[in-house]
Amino acid sequence: MPSSSFSILLRRCRLINQPGSAELVDIAIQDNQIRAIAPQLRQTADQEIDVDGQLVSPPFVESHIHLDSALTAGQPRWNQSGTLFEGIEIWRERKQDLTLEDVKARAIATLKLQASQGVLFVRSHVDVSEPGLTALQGLLEVRQAVKDWMTLQVMAFPQDGIYGAPKNEALLEEALERGADGVGGIPHYELTREEGVRSVHRVFELAAKYNRLIDVHCDEVDDDQSRFLEVMAACAIRSDLGSGVTASHTTAFGSYDNAYAFKLMAFLERTQINFIANPLINITLQGRTDTYPKRRGVTRVKELWGHGLNVSLGNDCIQDPWYSLGTANMLEAAAMAVHVCQMTGMDEINACYDMVTIHGAKTLNLQDDYGVEVGKPANLIVLDASDRYDAIRRRATVRYVISQGQLLVQTEPPKTQWHGDER
Ligand code: 17E
Ligand code: FE2
To answer: What does each C-alpha distance from 293 to 222, 260, 288, 297, 402 come to in angstroms?
Structure first.
């Protein structure tokens, strides 16, 4: 009799890239490592779970969220216009009285909401244009506190602009000194176009100086003249930061005329810039100055993906001044991308799933530590679905979440019961 040699054995798993007809496999886990993947493993384990043909996927990756402002919707008031700019003003009021306890409690509650739905890798922006850097300190402490079950990246984000107030530039640099994983910018919100250009250059300088990642909120407006992505492309071509560079939102790309957009796309193909779209919030935040026709205000996801660029999707907000809804469910973001970006072909729907898993992992530079493969860290999820399309269509329940070799969360899917006569 083989002895119990693994800590967890998942029986009868359907792997994400297997054809539907492929034989189901067992997955063996020991000491935070995937040790074996094969049909009908003969060994036993301390804990055996019969997955019964459900889908096993690498965990979801939330590549873009603001944990510092999460769960503050309505504080101190509701965003009536629904615009980015009113959101920034409301947050400016709210952030004046942040405390460490407030930031940490909301961030951890949000991370738990994410993990319970299969998200084990999160990139959060944190506003560093608030003089006490309380939000930054809170998220750095949270990054440490959750590290045994959640990988959190913290990106220093100058919400009010690097040059919007005299102290902001120094605060951004201090955030990197204190240990932020990356540096961001908001060129479309700098006071002038020139300062916007300068801010992008400054972000690249700081990333080089401190050896950090870059993730810029870039062109998050409907203004077809907001053209800071081309500045990022130029800086990326001339730097050696490679796939460490990300452009978030880039909603103006959806408003550029094709003559410019096609030229820009060719420049972008010379870079390894990652793109992040946040379709749930940008479909509500943008297009607010339009009557009809009303723009969708989402970047050219299908075209960027079609040109071989790395695109991932984020939720951006969970109940904050910019977006009062949000559930942290990555399948909602993927489903919204299918709709807003018209990615309804089967390969396109599958790509939208990849944008909340493997493409997100690439954006976060997780490199070799991500994926359901022998030898990799034991992070995976089991979905109540038969394939990626089914998972998105039904926003399938994540049944089991295995994080760093341990079963972290288990959820029963809703069950419907009919009453009365047979219908
Ligand atoms: N700040 C910003 O500039 N843009 C956003 N979409 C959010 C915060 C959520
Ligand atoms: Fe954002």
So the answer is: 13, 21, 11, 12, 46
Burial category of 32 from C-beta neighbours within 10 Å (exposed 0-12, middle 13-18, buried 19 and up): middle
pTM over 0.85: yes
Cα of 322 vs centre of ligand 1, distance in Å, is 7
- Cβ–ligand 1 contact at 253 (below 6 Å): no
Which domains can be identified in the chain, with CATH numbers?
A: 5-58+371-410 (2.30.40.10), 60-369 (3.20.20.140)
- pLDDT digit string (tens) for the chain, length 423 residues: 455 689 999 999 999 988 778 899 999 999 999 999 999 999 999 999 999 999 999 999 999 999 999 999 999 999 999 999 999 999 999 999 899 999 999 999 999 999 999 999 999 999 999 889 999 999 999 999 999 999 999 999 999 999 999 999 999 999 999 999 999 999 999 999 999 999 999 999 999 999 999 999 999 999 999 999 999 999 999 999 999 999 999 999 999 999 999 999 999 999 999 999 999 999 999 999 999 999 999 999 999 999 999 999 999 999 999 999 999 999 999 999 999 999 999 999 999 999 999 999 999 999 889 999 999 999 999 999 999 999 999 999 999 999 999 999 999 999 999 998 776
Question: 64, 94, 316: which to mutate for ligand 1, most atoms within 8 A of CB?
Answer: 316
* Selected catalytic residue, list 220, 230, 373, 422: 220
Give the residue, out of 217, 283, 286, with the most ligand 1 atoms within 8 A of its beta carbon, to mutate for a pocket test: 217
Nearest to 300, CA basis, from 197, 219, 234, 235: 219
The DSSP secondary structure of 191-257, one letter per residue, reads SSHHHHHHHHHHHHHHHHHHT-EEEEEE--SS-TT---HHHHHHHHHHSS-GGGEEEEE-GGGGTS-
* Element (DSSP H or E) covering residue 28: strand 25-30
Q: Is residue 130 flagged as an active site residue? A: no
